[in-house]
Amino acid sequence: MIDDPVGNPPNKALETADQFFGLLKMAFERLELTQDHVFIAGNNAAVKWTMRDWGKKGKQAIGEGISTFELDESGKIQQVSSYWDDAAMMRQLRD
């Protein structure tokens, strides 16, 4: 399950991947995501990241967040929770 961002309805990524990536293509000219710091503890990880988006109208938005990952014993991701303000990022593209 993916909570991205936390507070929005959870996402079932495998079932909705085509729709999700279609929305990204409609909204953004370009999107870059960089990993600033990675912290690993047992079967869990946290990533501090920065996202840069360029909207179709040429405006740029920058946001930061933290995503946590829970993995099972075989290393498959079981849960992703991302903490960031998606509404603030979209406001940067509109304003």
Plain-language structure description:
The protein is an alpha+beta fold and 95 residues long. Helix content is 25%, strand content 49%. It is built from 2 helices and 5 strands; from the N terminus they run βαββββα. It has a 5-stranded mixed sheet with strand order 1-5-4-3-2. The longest helix is centred in the N-terminal third of the chain and has 15 residues, at 13-27. The protein is globular, with a radius of gyration of 14 Å. It starts with a strand and ends with a helix.
In the CATH hierarchy, the architecture is Roll
Helix proportion:
25-40%
Look at the helices and sheets and give the structural class. Answer: alpha+beta
Biggest sheet character: 5 strands, mixed
Classify the oligomer: single chain
Distance between the termini: 32 Å
CATH topology: Nuclear Transport Factor 2, Chain: A
Number of domains: 1
CATH class: Alpha Beta
Radius of gyration: 14 Å
Main-sheet strand order equals: 1-5-4-3-2
Mean pLDDT across the residues is 87
Number-wise, the strands total 5
Order of helices and strands: EHEEEEH
**Beta fraction of the residues?**
over 45%
